[in-house]
Amino acid sequence: MAKTNDAAESHYDASGIQVLKGLEAVRKRPGMYIGSTSARGLHHLVYEVVDNSIDEALAGYCDTVHVTIHADDSITVVDNGRGIPVDMHPTEGLPGVELALTVLHAGGKFDKNSYKVSGGLHGVGVSVVNALSESLKVWIKRDGKEHYMDFVRGDTTTKLTLLGKVKEKETGTKVYFKPDPEIFTDLHYDYATLESRLRELSFLNKGVSITLVDEREGVQKQETFHAKGGLKEFVQYLNASRKVLHSEILYADAERDGIGIEIAMQYNDGYNETVFSFVNNINTHEGGTHLTGFKSALTSVINKHLDKANIAKKDKELRLSGDDVREGLTAVLSVKVKEPQFEGQTKTKLGNSEVESAVKTYVNEWLAEYLEEHPRVGNIVIDKALQAARAREAARKARDLTRKKSALDVGNLPGKLADCSLSDPAMCELYLVEGDSAGGSAKQGRDRMFQAILPLRGKILNVERARIDKILSNEEIRTIITAIGSGIGEEDFSIDQARYHKIIIMTDADVDGAHIRTLLLTFFFRQMRQLIESGFVYIAQPPLYRVAKGKEEYYAFDEAQREEIATRLGGGPEGKANVNIQRYKGLGEMNPDQLWKTTMDPATRTILKVNVEDEGQTHRLFETLMGDEVEPRRAFIEANAKFVSNLDI
What we know:
CATH topology of the largest domain: Heat Shock Protein 90
Shape: globular
CATH class of the largest domain: Alpha Beta
Number of strands: 23
Mean pLDDT: 87
Oligomer: single chain
Distance between the termini: 53 Å
Structural class: alpha+beta
CATH superfamily of the largest domain: Histidine kinase-like ATPase, C-terminal domain
Strand order of the largest sheet: 5-4-3-6-2-1-7-8
Radius of gyration: 28 Å
């Protein structure tokens, strides 16, 4: 993306910064502003600073962003944008940069003359980063001069200082910050997490070069993300381990009714859809009007194309559903909206009605024209959708078997389900347990009031490689769906019908147990993802060892904990030989009271909630580990084998 020099467009000074007061609450309630004070919030600090640079790129004034993780996990972000204004604000009596860094909701993105479109969800911006950093320093180059300021925990320590002259064309902002240990519980940046978001931003902002450098000892590395093709390269990246059905990626980049619309899509031979949507670089996980418009237009255009296609009459009589036309689809939709209105539980669902109309109208025209001009691709898409429709018809009877008349109708629940007494889903837990032996122990050890047990026999079907008819013909999967009661798939799923608000996967702590757990997670992610998004899916953490001496017994979840307990019970390293250590190969080796005490009692257990932090990476991971292609899986295993700490042979 080339930098523009249009004087009329580049008017950006302190008068363009509007002020909404109040910064003192940030340090008291940081979670309100960055989500959490754990790793998630820590990484959010980087995103806030980078978002400012990307806003400059969206406005056409920046094409290079450089992010560095220093040896002490402090961060520097440098861009070649216009530079934060340093002149005095006309009403606040402070330099623009000091306002932006010390006052909440003070920034150019509130003034549409400075930024027509901007990212960043809440506009809290770099002032929050400043408040939550033990040190923040900023350098600004603009108007042939370089200025500097620094801060401690949000307070100005060095007033705006002129460092000297620079070349007139040399512009940009450099921000250094060190997260405050008084605020954050985790002060270690994960390279892969930052890498994923910066790569995503490069796809969404074609032509912008984003470099990530890690200076920490032992892990030094550097990568540059630069996507000339924008979303086309995003789809190519997502489909890297899949077999595509047509080589050309369908791509459009246009403006309709003042709304920027960019779309890339390509079909693969899989059975799952991978559709991402963004608004002003924000990943709209919950969708919204832009995604509704896209899906509606896609279904309509392909059904119209089916009517014109030279195929058998029985196929023409089929009406393709949205699920049918999106089977095997990988697509990314990105819109740029001047005044986005967000709603939904996580404020990542677009509510602007005018965006739906604009996207729907444009996609109808663009896609219909493309399929007319590229009949081979059109035939591939029609054939893929027809196969899905036939499978859907074949699966209808199997699907009906998994449905209940209502959430209170338990007449057709699976016979091997040991249900709980309570009927309030918010109070109820369902344990999916590996094997009848462990299932027996769990049934005896549970609290029957609120804990239900469903034993699973062996490994369920790998849904990554199966169409819906095959999925619903699998007895174990039908049993799970019937027990949960919510239905499956985007069009038939209802979170309100879920009979349990905690679904806990409890498998053995060995390779087979890990495989079963992965199969179940694949199933939930692909077919019942709303359960994960609603925070209903958990993984039990049974202990690996029982360490005992005399009447004293403790449980260890890893080798280090085992050694610590054994040394303590033995009175030192020499006495460990007198300590009894039992290695649990499976849940069935625990008696009911041990299983309750270690793994099922809410007062003492540890369970891990399953979250999707990065949707794109999650899609790729399941595709790599569970898909048909062998080479990507082999490469993943070779790259990650060194991290395996416990392997049963």
